[in-house]
Design a protein that fits this description.
Blueprint lengths: L4 E4 L5 H12 L3 E6 L2 H10 L5 E5 L5 H15 L2 E6 L14 H22 L3 E10 L3 H4 L5 H21 L5 E7 L5 H4 L3 H10 L8 H12 L10 E4 L6
Parallel strand pairs: 1-2, 1-4, 2-3, 4-5, 5-6, 6-7
């Protein structure tokens, strides 16, 4: 198989889905990790490009991640690109947040990124790519997001440290910090609040998931071969 192989976690909806579709358009063979069966079925119905594999795994479950690695290794032996995209949000002020709500977000967003990376790292080709989806919340913090901001800040620190470890193999490791992106989550925000948020963005509009996908395509390309340990802000100037 001459195509580059990519693994994208949380790849059947939102930003992850756009990343998958962009990589398919770039002629990758994409392994798509998912957890929600209904989303996976909807994804299959929508796709004209069939050059992908779907694999269900809860990235917080080490055994399931190990099984996902075995699937990838048996079918493809090696991958070129790992995109750690899967994540969740449970927003509440620290005072109202339960221990479980804090732990769940850390477990998926940070520990899940570790679990997948640890298992897949031996399968990544020399001179391959790892791209972690963080958030501007992990850079600047956000009201009601002590759990989410902590997890995404951890992803950035994880990225920086891992990049030093993988450099000897030529594997670059970068993070992307999206701003306010037009997804199902933002569509549920009160319209008045959403308009106020838009006014804070110098470009005056929300980002599109394809904006994040395009950044992934660039960081995975040969043109970004000398970029590593970097966090790319894709936020319309919000953190300018």
């Amino acid at each position: 198989m001459n195509k580059k192989i990519a693994l994208v976690t949380g790849g059947t909806s939102g930003i992850g889905k756009s990343i998958v579709e962009a990589l398919l358009n770039e002629d990758y063979r994409v392994i798509i990790n998912y957890i929600d069966k209904k989303q996976a079925e909807e994804f299959k119905k929508e796709q004209k490009n069939s050059d992908y594999d779907l694999i269900q795994a809860d990235i917080t479950n080490r055994k399931q991640v190990e099984d996902m690695k075995a699937f990838v290794q048996d079918k493809f032996h090696k991958i070129y690109l790992l995109v750690n995209n899967a994540g969740i949000m449970i927003d509440k002020t620290c005072n109202k947040m339960s221990y479980k709500e804090f732990d769940n977000v850390i477990d998926v967003n940070l520990k899940g990124t570790f679990n997948v990376t640890k298992e897949m790292l031996p399968l990544i080709e020399d001179d391959g790519r790892i791209i972690n989806i963080s958030s501007i919340s992990g850079v600047y913090g956000q009201f009601g997001q002590t759990n989410y901001a902590s997890s995404k800040a951890g992803v950035i620190a994880f990225t920086k440290s891992l990049a030093k470890e993988t450099a000897r193999r030529g594997i670059t490791v970068n993070a992307i910090a999206p701003g306010i992106i037009d997804t199902d989550i933002t569509r549920n925000i009160d319209k008045e609040i959403l308009e106020k948020l838009k006014k804070q963005i110098p470009l005056g509009k929300l980002g599109n998931p394809i904006d994040i996908a395009n950044a992934v395509v660039f960081l995975a390309s040969d043109k970004a071969g000398y970029i590593t340990r970097h966090t790319l802000h894709v936020d319309g100037g919000l953190t300018f």
